[in-house]
Write a structure and sequence with these properties.
13 helices; seven-stranded mixed sheet; 2 domains; Aminopeptidase; 7 strands; about 40% helix; globular
C-alpha cells in the first residue's frame, strides 16, 4: 500500500541485509499482522481481535485485497514487516462515501462487515462493476514495522509497499479511490498522488486521538487521475485496458497466486485441486491464449508437457505481470 502512518514507532529496524517479498495474506499471518494496525484506528485488544476475525472470514473474498510484505531473512514468526488492506465497496457504501463522508471510515466498514450491513461483492459483481467502470476502492489501512526514514530499511519497506499497491490494484477499471489516514501521514499520501477531501460535517478533531493522529481524508476519481501527469502510485492504478483472454475465475486465481512464486504443492492446496486438476487449469489457460494470441508462445506453441510446459508458464506469467487486467473479473453487460 502506498503511504505510511505517523513516524512514531519505537520498534527498531532490523540490522541485516533485507530480503523483502510481497504476497497476499495467509491465515497463518494474521497474528503478526494485527500488531501492525495503525494507531489512528484507536482499537483496543478486543476490537483488534474482532478485525482479525474479519480478515480470516475475508481472506479469500475477491473484493478484499490484503498485501503482506515479509522479510524472509528474519526468523519465522517475525518476518512480516508491512501490511495493507483495501476493499471494493458495494454501491450504497460507495455512494455514501462520495456524497457525505464521515470520519472513522475504516472502523465503520469493519463494523458493517461484522453486522452484515456491508456484503462483500462477489466475483461476478466485481466483474460487472469492473466492465462498467464503476469500481470504488477504500484503502482501509497500512502499517509497517519501522517509520524511521533515516534508516534505509524503512525506506525499502515503503518502496516495496508502492510496488505492492500497483500489483494488487492495477488492471481494474476504477471509478474512485478513498483513503482516510491521519495528519502525520498526510504528506506521504499526497506524495503518492491522492488529493485531500473534506468531511461532510467538517474535519473536527477527535478528542480521543492525539494531534498527529487526527483523521484526514484523501481520495482520487478517475477524472482527476487521468487529468494529471502519469507516474504517481495513485495515478498508475487508473490506467485501463480491456482484458483479451477473459480467463475463468479459477484460472485467474491460479495466475494470481503463481505471480508470487508459490510451489505447485502450495497452489494445489490453495486452489483445492489435485495434481491433475492443476495441470488441467494450466492447459485451459494455454488453450485460451492459443485461441486469441498464438504468437505469445512462438516456438513453444502446441504441447504443454515436458520442457514446453514450464516455458509456457514463464511466458504467461511475464505477460500478465504487465497486463494485470487479465487477472481481474470482467463481465460484459447483457
Amino acid at each position: 500500500m502506498p503511504v505510511v502512518p505517523p513516524p512514531d514507532s519505537t520498534r527498531a529496524a532490523p540490522a541485516h541485509v533485507p530480503r523483502l517479498r510481497h504476497r497476499p495474506l495467509a491465515l497463518a499471518d494474521i497474528p503478526e499482522c494485527v500488531a501492525l494496525l495503525p494507531p489512528r484506528l484507536g482499537m483496543d485488544a478486543a476490537q483488534a481481535r474482532d478485525v482479525a476475525e474479519r480478515w480470516a472470514e475475508m481472506v479469500d473474498e475477491p473484493s478484499f485485497l490484503f498485501g503482506v510484505i515479509e522479510d524472509v531473512a528474519l526468523p519465522a514468526g517475525s518476518r512480516i514487516q508491512a501490511t495493507g488492506a483495501t476493499l471494493f465497496l458495494p454501491p450504497a457504501w460507495a455512494q455514501q462515501l462520495a456524497r457525505t463522508p464521515r470520519p472513522h471510515v475504516t472502523p465503520r466498514i469493519y463494523q458493517g462487515l461484522r453486522d452484515g450491513s456491508l456484503k462483500p461483492l462477489s466475483d461476478r459483481e466485481l466483474g460487472v462493476a469492473n466492465a462498467a467502470g464503476e469500481l470504488v476502492l477504500a484503502v482501509l489501512h497500512y502499517g509497517q514495522s519501522s517509520y524511521d526514514f533515516g534508516d534505509p530499511y524503512a525506506t525499502s519497506l515503503l518502496n516495496a509497499a508502492n510496488e505492492n499497491f500497483r500489483l494488487f490494484h492495477a488492471g481494474y477499471h476504477l471509478q474512485a479511490v478513498h483513503y482516510e489516514t491521519d495528519v502525520a501521514a498526510a504528506p506521504f499520501v499526497a506524495a503518492a498522488g491522492f488529493l485531500p477531501r473534506a468531511y461532510a460535517e467538517g474535519d473536527r478533531p477527535d478528542p480521543a486521538l492525539p494531534p498527529h493522529l487526527q483523521l484526514t481524508l484523501f481520495g482520487l476519481t478517475r477524472e482527476q487521475a487521468l487529468a494529471g501527469p502519469p507516474g504517481s502510485t495513485a495515478r498508475n492504478i487508473f490506467e485501463r485496458h480491456v482484458p483479451l483472454f477473459r480467463f475463468s475465475a479459477a484460472q485467474r486465481r491460479l495466475l494470481w497466486l503463481s505471480l508470487f512464486d508459490e510451489s505447485d504443492e502450495v497452489l494445489q492446496a490453495k486452489l483445492g485441486v489435485s495434481v491433475h486438476g492443476l495441470k488441467k487449469l494450466w492447459r485451459g489457460i494455454y488453450d485460451r491464449i492459443d485461441e486469441r494470441m498464438p504468437e505469445l508462445f512462438g516456438e513453444d506453441a502446441g504441447g504443454d508437457d515436458g520442457k514446453r510446459g514450464p516455458e509456457k508458464r514463464r511466458q504467461v506469467l511475464a505477460y500478465v505481470r504487465q497486463r494485470l487486467e487479465e487477472l481481474r473479473p470482467w463481465v460484459e453487460p447483457a
